[in-house]
Specification:
108 residues, 14% strand
């Protein structure tokens, strides 16, 4: 049976791609970036983080840029950037819909 390609991102997946948007990082740097950016709201344990990194490599969303001993440094690919952009656009539409329906739309 063929494997289903990744169609959407979890919150943790979203932040992993965001962590790689501007620079290459190793796993511990990704986890620290996400923890700091989200003020601790999203904490990536090693099991979760390395499962995401493996999935993203399989999907071609990231690739290893170099390896030194046990440390692996990752970078986002063009496919990863496109997936991130699609997810960001979808999330923005969700927020817009929610604000409009709850009457919390920002005045312009």
């Amino acid at each position: 049976m063929a494997r289903e390609p990744l169609k959407s991102l979890t919150e943790s997946m979203f932040y992993v791609l965001l962590a790689l948007w501007r620079q290459e990082r190793c796993g511990t740097e990704i986890a620290a970036y996400v923890r700091q950016l989200t003020e601790g709201r999203v904490a990536l344990g090693p099991g979760t983080l390395y499962a995401i990194l493996g999935k993203f490599q399989d999907e071609g969303l990231i690739r290893e840029s170099w390896v030194q001993g046990r440390m692996r440094v990752y970078r986002i690919t063009d496919a990863g950037r496109e997936m991130f952009r699609r997810e960001l656009e979808k999330m923005c539409r969700c927020v817009d819909n929610g604000r409009r329906e709850t009457g919390e739309e920002e005045s312009t």
